Amino acid sequence: EDVDDETFLRNSRTNYTEGASAPKYNTNPFLQDDDYEQQRQMYEHRRREVEDRTLLSSERSLGLLYETEQVGMATAEELARQREQLENTSKQLDDINSTLRFSQRHLTGLKSVFGGLKNYLTRQKEFTPRMSASPSGSNMHDTMSYQEPPKLQMTPEERYENHPVNRLRNEPSYAPQQTTSGGPGDFNARLEQNLDCMAGSLARLKGLAVDLNSEIDTQNDLIDNITNKVEDTDVKIGMQNRDMLKLLGKK
Predict the structure, then answer these.
(1) The pTM is what?
(2) Domain spans of the chain, in order of start
(3) DSSP state of 185
(4) What whole-number distance in Å separates Cα of residue 178 and Cα of residue 47?
(5) Which of these, 95, 101, 171, 175, has the minimum number of CB atoms within 10 Å of its CB?
(6) Looking at the predicted structure, is the pLDDT value of residue 55 above 60?
(7) Backbone phi, then psi, for 119, in 5-degree steps?
C-alpha cells in the first residue's frame, strides 16, 4: 500500500511525542531492594526508640514507688517511737494517780488525828478547868498512840495493751528491683518484669497506708485517755493541796 510523504511524517511525529512523554520505570532489581532496606531500618530505629522510652518510663516509675515506700517505712518507725513515749507517759500518770490515792489516805489519817486531839483537848477543858492546856503524860500517850492505818500492798496498775506496729516493724526492707538488660527481643520480658514490680510495690504501699491509718487512730485514742488522766490528776492534786493548807491552818 502506498503512503504519501505527508502522512508518513505526521505518523512519525505522533510516535515520537508519545515515546517522549511515557513514564520511565526503574527496572533495576538492586535499586528496589536498597529502598526497601532503608525503610525497614528506619522503622526498626523508630521501634527501638519507642521501646527505650517505654522501659525508661517504667523504671523511673518504679524508682518513685520505691522512694515512697522508704518514706512510708520511716513514718511507721517514727509512729512506733511516738507510741512508746505515749505509753510511758500513760504509765507514769498511772503511778502518779496511785501515789495520790495513798497520800489521800495519809491525809485522811492526819485529819482524824488532829480532829481527835482537838476533841480531847476540848473535853479536858470542860471537865477540868484548872488543868493546864497540855494534857497529862498518860493522856498524851493515849492520844498519840494512834496507829497509822496499815498500808495496803500496792496492786500493779493495768498497763495499756502494747500495740506496737508489728506489721510495720517486721516488714522487710524493700530494695528497688533491677531490670536485667538484654537484647531487643527481651523488651516484652523486661517490661513485664517492671510492671510486676510496680504492682507489688503498689500492694505494699496500700497495706502500709492501712497500717499507718490504724496506728494513728489508736494513738489518737491513747492521747484522749492521757488527757483525761491529766485532768483527773490535776483535780486530785488541787484537793490535796487545799487539805494540807487546812491542816496547817493556812487559808
Answers:
(1) 0.55
(2) 5-248
(3) G
(4) 23
(5) 175
(6) yes
(7) -65, -40
